[in-house]
Amino acid sequence: MRRKDYPHNPTHIFADDTLYFITAAIYQKRPLLQAPQLKQLLLERIRLCFDNHHWELHHWVILDNHYHLLGKSCVGQDLSRIMTDIHAFSGYHIKQVTHTQERVWWNYWDYCPRNEQDYMIRLIYLLNNPVKHGYVANLHDYPFSSFQEALTTYGSENLRHQFQAHPEFRALILREAYDDEF
Q1: How far apart are CA 76 and CA 161, in angstroms?
Q2: How far does CA 14 lie from the centroid of its chain?
Q3: What is the DSSP letter of 7?
Q4: Which long-range CB contacts under 8 A does 88-92 form with residues at least 24 apart?
Q5: So where are the chain's domains?
Q6: I need a surface site. Which of 7, 34, 141, 154 has the fewest CB within 10 A?
Q7: What's the rounded Cα separation, in Å, for the pair 168 and 94?
């Protein structure tokens, strides 16, 4: 495992065959990803870059000014190349669509969950992001998230238990429009 330090950038960890939670943000928190086609373009680029470097993309959410990813590395050293590729490609297209002159991406932060509980905390945080930021009241209603895949993978009962197990989400009000209450 290697760490990379720069005076004004977050420390990045480069570890092989390791779980990663990655967050990236738009410069100055501008809502440059409001257009659904830009969210879709970003998701496709993320998937392509992860595939090209043999990384696994487990879960994701894309909002108007940031995104979160959960995945597993193959070669940790590839993280910088993956993020550079994602941000260079998407930044170019975001500028074309939004006509912004300023830089698009601010930076990215990575964290390596230490165990299954740590991973699940990050997963629940990621999945709940559209509710937290007021995009939707019901997780089923947000299309730019891997919530449906998580529901299939973990099952409704297990996922509900995970949400209720973490203090931050115990008070989460889940609309009762669906049998699984999400």
Answers
A1: 32
A2: 18
A3: T
A4: 89/45, 90/38, 90/41, 90/42, 90/45
A5: 1-112, 117-182
A6: 7
A7: 33
